[in-house]
Amino acid sequence: MDDELAKSKLERYIKYAKNVLKDMVVCPPKDPSLSSKLEYNLSLARQYFEDSEYYFGKGDFITALVCIAYCEGLLDACRNLGWLKYEWNLGGKD
């Protein structure tokens, strides 16, 4: 994959993740130990998101892609457990 294509894809992935982090609805579980796991996973997702932006800015698109993939995976796992509500806005080129 050439750098321009990678850059274009990463810009979209970062935008989508940023929107999810901003707009998601958090549905914390009643069990305090599970609630703390949710908070830990959200913290990791935000850190990976910030790392992706950092590496993107440095032009290290491979590391940025890995970071945003981890961010998205953590968010999806939390959503699959019912702890988050959101939709990925993947339609179009917005």
UniProtKB/TrEMBL annotation:
SUPFAM superfamilies: AF1782-like. Residues 12-83 form the DUF357 domain. This is DUF357 domain-containing protein. It comes from Thermoproteota archaeon.
